[in-house]
Amino acid sequence: QDTFERVFVSPGLRGVPWYVMAGNHDHAGNVTAQLRYSHHSPRWHFPHPYYSLRLHIPGSNSSARLLVLDTVLLCGHTDDFGLGDVPAGPRDAVAAGAHLAWLRAQLEAAAGDRFVLVAGHYPVWSVAKHGPTPCLLRLLRPLLRRHRVTAYLCGHDHNLQYLEEGGVGYILSGAGNFMEDSRPHDGSVPPGSLRFFFGSPTSPGGFAHLRLEPSAVTVTFLEATGRVL
């Protein structure tokens, strides 16, 4: 009620489906309960810790694929309290291996899709407090490049970022609660890869909007006021 039902109450959002994934704070609580909440809320869709969505691109015969990951299952948990804390490895190596095998198979199967989006909580690249996630650099980045994935979507750091590297867009949208403008990991990302950063502590927050069209994907960063950043 405090973080979802009584927050996203605008009439324009009533019919919008929410596709949910778990992050480290969710894993510190009860992810099973969040999965089961799908049976109680018509707009909360969380069918499995990781899952695939097929998206139709309006005005075309083309489709896009969205692969929703559980990066805590893949890489492990971090409590967030130290600067640059990184996940220390999966709690269940067998489950992590199964997740990675699923992802490889899904990327192979998505070869015919116009766009492929992959989403996870931890960032691959980030200039902010948490910085890049070594586990994802090792496991995920080569797959994103090999399969020419359109973009990787994430959160975890509390700001808005867009980076581009190896033909893949990296969209970080973690400004739904509060904003942080520190950039201690400016030197931890490839030179020239950071194209946009916004983390003003006086801002009411914001989010990223992706529009899929037959010819392109457009990313727009918006402030909670509606201002285009």
Automatic annotation (TrEMBL):
Residue ranges of every copy of the Calcineurin-like phosphoesterase domain listed in the record: 14-159
Keywords from the UniProt entry: Hydrolase, Signal
Pfam families recorded: Metallophos (PF00149)
Single GO molecular function: hydrolase activity
Any one of the GO BP annotations: bone resorption
Protein name (Swiss-Prot/TrEMBL): PPA5 phosphatase
Gene name of the record: Acp5
